[in-house]
């Protein structure tokens, strides 16, 4: 709890003076005002986050948080739970979707076991921070205790902080956890105070009962556990997931260290909502990536007040969309650093 509290206390609002300076420089570049669109607003945001006019965003890491979900016992997903452990072992080997994208965008993949159902060998290249062997089934009781929920957030803080201390200057959130679109939709319907059928989608594949059964399981889990809408940790504990908590921790740690954090699709955006409930100043440090096909993703992004940059019809998770967005951040920084101002261009002409 101490680490979480300390991290939250360290999160400050963006550097508005630096944002003004960045805006001024951008408006002076040799282009029609506003013509580089969202590259401009992104560059202003990056200056506000880092407090630098020419931010360095060259050491990238996606932190992939892996955990299992007891609610899979209810048949909410068509995929076997052991895909979580296979994939967790596959990240360090470079064989997953996010690895393929990260390879071309020059990002490191950091894999963390926050709660995979099976033991991960210590030489597998995975950081082992297992809190428990998957959450409990939220259809029967709380997914985890309040202490475990806090611990999951603190795992994310610890891993992200370690990477930042090693020189990483931009983070991305990723996850792996068969079943995790169910707790994600549950968290969202609690925060939005809406019927789960408005925010529940297909995920990676629904079980034989279809989406209707998934909605019913979520509805009943909320009715049984009665999470408190105004207590994000209570929501995370009762109807959440360990990797969702850990991603919220990654986001909080990035903000506390004044580093941008690029969020991925549906599940990452839910983690961002949890982080935002804990500390609203975190929002300034969040950079969106792609618009996931999962219906709840759009709603969650709207609640957070962010607009995804890419429309790629993706719905993989793992951090794949975040990795894909990294070059846009590079371009924003390059615009700041390499583009001449109108004044500089004129001087060149006169020579
Ligand atoms: C082979 C495979 C690789 C994946 N990589 C990410 N996910 C994605 O799908 C899961 C969520 O969907 P649901 O809630 O329907 O189970 C998460 O693990 C998410 O990261 C995958 C899913 C599968 C099957
Ligand atoms: O958008 C996502 O993150 C997502 C969507 C479906 C399945 N897994 C992840």
UniProtKB/TrEMBL annotation:
It catalyses: 5,6-dimethylbenzimidazole + nicotinate beta-D-ribonucleotide = alpha-ribazole 5'-phosphate + nicotinate + H(+). It is an enzyme of class 2 (transferase). Its EC number is 2.4.2.21. Gene3D superfamilies: 1.10.1610.10, 3.40.50.10210. It comes from the Bacteria. One of its GO terms (molecular function) is nicotinate-nucleotide-dimethylbenzimidazole phosphoribosyltransferase activity. The keyword Ion transport does not apply. Keywords: Cobalamin biosynthesis, Glycosyltransferase, Transferase. It holds the Pfam family DBI_PRT. CDD domains: DMB-PRT_CobT. Pathway: Nucleoside biosynthesis; alpha-ribazole biosynthesis; alpha-ribazole from 5,6-dimethylbenzimidazole: step 1/2. The active site is at residue 318. Catalyzes the synthesis of alpha-ribazole-5'-phosphate from nicotinate mononucleotide (NAMN) and 5,6-dimethylbenzimidazole (DMB). Belongs to the CobT family. This is Nicotinate-nucleotide--dimethylbenzimidazole phosphoribosyltransferase. The gene is cobT.
């Amino acid at each position: 709890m101490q680490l979480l509290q300390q991290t939250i206390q360290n999160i400050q609002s963006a550097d508005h003076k630096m944002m003004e300076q960045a805006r001024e420089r951008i408006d002076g570049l040799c282009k029609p005002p506003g013509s580089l669109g969202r590259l401009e607003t992104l560059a202003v945001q990056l200056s506000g986050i880092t407090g630098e006019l020419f931010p360095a965003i060259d050491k990238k890491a996606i932190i992939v948080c892996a955990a299992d979900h007891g609610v899979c016992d209810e048949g909410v997903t068509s995929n076997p739970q052991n895909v979580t452990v296979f994939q967790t072992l596959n990240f360090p080997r470079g064989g997953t979707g996010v690895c393929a994208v990260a390879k071309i965008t020059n990002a490191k993949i950091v894999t963390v076991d926050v709660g995979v159902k099976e033991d991960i060998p210590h030489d597998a290249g995975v950081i082992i921070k297992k809190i428990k062997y998957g959450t409990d089934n939220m259809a029967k009781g709380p997914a985890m205790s309040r202490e475990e929920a806090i611990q999951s957030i603190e795992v994310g803080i610890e891993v992200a902080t370690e990477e930042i201390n090693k020189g990483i200057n931009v983070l991305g959130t990723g996850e792996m956890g068969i079943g995790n679109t169910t707790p994600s939709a549950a968290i969202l319907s609690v925060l939005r105070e809406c019927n789960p059928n408005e925010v529940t989608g297909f995920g990676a594949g629904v079980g034989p009962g279809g989406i209707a059964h998934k909605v019913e399981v979520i509805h009943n889990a909320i009715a049984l556990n009665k999470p408190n809408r105004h207590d994000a940790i209570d929501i995370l504990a009762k109807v959440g997931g360990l990797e969702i908590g850990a991603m919220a921790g990654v986001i909080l740690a990035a903000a506390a260290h004044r580093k941008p954090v690029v969020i991925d699709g549906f599940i990452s955006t839910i983690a961002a909502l949890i982080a935002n409930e804990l500390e609203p100043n975190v929002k300034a440090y969040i950079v969106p990536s792609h618009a996931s096909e999962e219906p709840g993703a759009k709603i969650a992004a709207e609640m957070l007040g962010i607009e995804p940059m890419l429309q790629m019809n993706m719905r993989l998770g793992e951090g794949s969309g975040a990795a894909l967005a990294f070059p846009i951040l590079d371009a924003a920084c390059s615009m700041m650093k390499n583009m001449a101002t109108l004044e500089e261009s004129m001087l060149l002409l006169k020579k």
